[in-house]
Amino acid sequence: MPQPELTPRLQRLALVNVCLGQFMSALDSRSVTVALPTLSVYFDASLAVVQWVPLAYQLTIVGLVLSMARLGDKLGRKKIYALGFVLLGVGSASCGLSGHLWQIIGFRVVEAVGGALVLANGRAIASTLYAREGRGRALGMMSMSFHLGYITGPSIGGFLVDTVGWRWIFFMNLPVAVAAASMAWKVLPESVTEKRDYSLDPVGMITLLMTAVLLIVGLQQIAKSGFGLFSAGAFAASGIFFILLVYFERKDPAPLLDLSLFKVRLLTAAVLSHFFVSLSHTSTFFLLPFYLQGILRFTPTQVGLTIIFFSPVIVFIAPVGGWLADRLGSRMLCTVGSVLTTSSMFGFSRLGAESGQVAVMVPLMAFGVGLVAFPIT
User: Fold this and answer.
1) In terms of Cα–Cα distance, which of 124, 111, 1 is closest to 70?
2) % of the chain exceeding 90 in pLDDT
3) Percentage helix, strand, coil, to 5, in the chain?
4) Which end of the chain lies in a sparser environment, N or C, as judged by fewer CB atoms within 10 Å?
């Protein structure tokens, strides 16, 4: 297939498409979070079960995203990226048609495969198209699109649950996915001109995925019924897969995870800090809708409008965070961000049955400032 000439107009259209992928992934994630309490009631499912709706998506992304990036390098990013939108649309629409919670969880895995294809190849496409100049501006536009999805996701999700039902949270992704896939196929040039025989490292992919899944299963079992034989077995199996991951990745000449990088102390410290801040982020936005709906009796729309105050803080203050990082250095700024994140967690811990909307919004905004200072977004 002949490649179109790379003109400024084509660059802009390609960037719009990549930004659409970033926006869609954030919108889907945030709107589904708002719907979790409704899904729990609708399917009469416990918190331990309904949490697999977001977990199935995130764990699949963790296990596949590195391999999907290599698949794009091997077969061509354009077709793999467009296929990602197709799978996102099919998986999302199937979730909306599902009659059982286990079906939603299964189709979320399909959706996540598409998400991995889009996320793994979108940034690489933009970086290639803007290799000579404007790369920083292009990546900034992608980041802004992602956070725009974060801003609109809760409010749109809450509105749809209140008006037409939770199924439309999934249905709304289908036309966007179809349009994005069609646009990607028509306007994107192939950014991989020399295809190489890259190894997808299936052993590394499987061992990484199983390590994460079994660890989560063990932790979930402890939360459900305490530490027992099942949870101990899950942790042991997770440990075995982790050992296998380390063993095979050291033997592989082109591993998915270059473990030698962790010999750099600064990188290891950054990864660990990132892990704990991300843990705070994920747990907060999973539990907060249940608290707002179950304890404070907020409607889904009110939940979305409350949570929305988190993202504008990031969008408007992020440039200031970048400016401070250039002048003060990342170490001091990350320390300040970690302190602010810890303070916001303390604020959330003080919430009770009598707390109001403002009491929730204050630690949310502090959390947003903390994440700006700690550059994980």
Assistant:
1) 124
2) 8
3) 80, 0, 20
4) N
